[in-house]
UniProtKB/TrEMBL annotation:
Name of the protein in question: Tyrosine-type recombinase/integrase
Annotated keywords: DNA recombination
Gene3D superfamilies membership: Intergrase catalytic core (1.10.443.10)
InterPro entries: DNA_brk_join_enz (IPR011010), Integrase-like_cat_sf (IPR013762)
């Protein structure tokens, strides 16, 4: 079974790989600060 956080990480990674702007990914994931997005992406 895949955890929700793993699915979010895969989604964000895919968006980064296809060139989506960080701000768009941040908004889609519901993060208030870019630091949270960077932290999530390092997991």
């Amino acid at each position: 079974m895949i955890a929700l956080c793993q699915l979010r990480h895969c989604y964000a990674t895919h968006l980064l790989n296809i060139g989506a702007p960080h701000e768009v990914i941040q908004c889609l994931l519901g993060h208030d600060a870019i630091a949270l997005l960077i932290f999530d992406n390092r997991k």
